[in-house]
Structures are given as structure tokens and as C-alpha cells.
Design a protein that fits this description.
Layout (H helix, E strand, L loop, with lengths): L1 E4 L2 E5 L4 E3 L4 E2 L5 E3 L3 H15 L26 H5 L20 H9 L18 H13 L3 H13 L15 E2 L15 H8 L4 H7 L14 H5 L8 E2 L1 H12 L7 H8 L3 E3 L9 E3 L27 E4 L5 E5 L4 E5 L11 H14 L3 E2 L5 E2 L1
Parallel strand pairs: 5-6
Antiparallel strand pairs: 1-2, 1-12, 3-4, 5-7, 8-9, 10-11, 11-12, 13-14
Helix pairs in contact: 1-4, 1-5, 3-4, 6-7
Amino acid sequence: MCVTIDGDTVVDLWGGTADPTTGTEWKQDTIGHVWSCTKGATALCAHVLASRGELDVNAPVVKYWPEFGAKGKEGVLVRHLLTHTAGLPALRAPLPEGALYDAAAMAERLAGEEPFWEPGTRQGYHALTFGFLVGEVVRRVSGRGLGTFFRDEIAGPLGLDFWIGLPEEFERRVAPTVPAPPPAPGASLPTFYQRAFTDPASLQALVIGNTGGYVLTPGESDSRAAHAAEIGAVGGITNGRGLAGMYRPLAVGGGLVSPDQLAMMGSVAAATQVDAALLVPTRWTLGFMKGSDNRHLPGPDGEGVLLSEDAFGHSGMGGSLGFADPVPRLSFGYSMNLQGSGLGVNERGQSLVNAVYRTLGYQQAHGGLWYL
């Protein structure tokens, strides 16, 4: 866990077991898989280009990626990719083993895919495809692959131990993922997983089942091939320090982006009461999550991310989280190897967020989102 205020690191904590099979301790330089926290890094790459005037988020994707216009997608805007409204949360035709490790091939497949809904009319979390869609736009505009652009323009200048495509020399420092324990007797899975596991024809089944083995094959996401690949939706390797460090300049006025771009990054651009993929309420800026209080929903669907209304960032499967909050000039990062089973940050990460906001004098509205 790492927290910065006014650009200064005020909390930097680590501990526990990095590898339960060997008993290796979690060390200061241990890094791990932060899953969808990677989407925040990928979105930031797009915003850096937009801030420089090289990318227009309101332009059609075909302006930068002409082949993308197939199958009725000529009107899809870059903002639709960033807000999970493009209608491409999965691929229909079966993917071969290891497909997610070839970003160019995945971009080609997505360019030829027919949308699941009319782009811009529905919101549905693009869990695995987001990175290949936004990442290909970054590549087309910058001439560099997503991982290279992120390293050159963000991680390198900020001194971050954060990788989209991990060099082999750092593999020894990675804490392998520990799957979430099975639900307790009588407990249920989130509706998303229930639908995926009981309806093989559902969108949810395609989202987690048609990944070339990446999601459902035990240990595959911890393979060297997975770590080396540029999977811009879920493949990032870092720790709490790396997440807080990436959001640090955004918490104190921009740095990497212009003030106007920063305001856009923090403003709600899409919201729905029933996400077409996750089946719960979600709110998005252009590429980032906003705080959501879903505790009115039963069971694990009630797990959200309780932040202030000014905060924006992204959580990762199992509970990792990174975000910026420009009002208290706060950045926050939390990572772990032991997964939680819900769709939000679960009580471990949320308790840390709560402690930070309480320390800053915030209160909760009806027990929900934080406010000064």
C-alpha cells in the first residue's frame, strides 16, 4: 500500500507472503499482477496523446485505424472505446491458445468483429478487449506499441516499477497470484460469474471463457508468456507504490496531461444501472472508474468501490486499486497476491481507502461515498 499527498509519499507499507509455496516474504521490491488496474495505465497513454493534440477522443476510431470500420463500426468514436460503450466486450469465434499474447492479432480480430450492440447506446465492461482496442489506437497514433509507449512516456519519466510487458530480468520479483478461496457454504458468486458458468451462450461466458486459456487455465496468467505480453486491459505488473506513483501527478494538477485533459479524465462520461457485461451499476470517465456504492444489491454484487466524487482510477480483479483524488491532492495504490472473489476491492482494500479518507477529515454520505 502506498499513499501520496501533495506529491509526497506519506504511507509506504508492504508485508506478508509473496509465494505461499516457498514461504518467500513480500519484500520492498516485490511486484505482482494488478489485473484491470492496467486499464488506468492504458487510458493514461491515450490521454497523454490527446493532451499533446495528437489524438481526438471525439473522433471516429477509423481516423487512426481505418480497418476498424468493418461490420458497422465506422461510427465508433475513440470515446466509445474508453467508456466501454463500443459494443466489443468479447469475440465470438473461438480464440486459439495464447491468443492474448499477440496484440496485433487481437487488434485484427476486433477490427473484423461485429458489435454486440449499437455502439454508443449501451455500456458493457470490455474486460479483456479494452487494452487491445485502446492500445491499437495508441500504437497507430504514436508508432509505438502500448507497453513501449507506457515505458517511454509514463513509467520511465516517473521512475515507476510498472510494466505492460515485463522484461524477463524482473520475473524473479513477481509474486504469483493466489486464487480466491471458494465461497463459504450458502454464499453466492457475483451474478456475472453465475451467468458465465451456467449459460455457455451468454456474453459473460464469452468474456471469461474465450480468452485462449488466459483466464480459466490455472496458472496461465502467471506464465512467463503472459507476463511478457502487452495485455493492456489486465496484464500490468507493479505494486502499490507503482500504482500510487502513476496517479501522483494527476492528483497534483496534471504533469503528464493538460488541466483540461485532467478535468475530462475525472468527469463521468457514461453510467448505467445494469452494465451489459458485469450486470451491476457502473460509472466511467474516459477510461477510468468512478466511485460506486452498490451495497443495495444482494450478496457479492453489492461490492463496489467507495471513493469521493472527485476521485478516479481503476480497480483490478481480486481487489487491487489505484486512484487519484485531486481535491485532497491524494494518490493511492494497493496490490496483493491473494485474490478476493467479488467485483470490487472487497473489505481489505476498502478498509485501507476508508482509513485514508477518515485521516483526511472526510465523512461518508449515508455510509457510502466520501465527502469533505
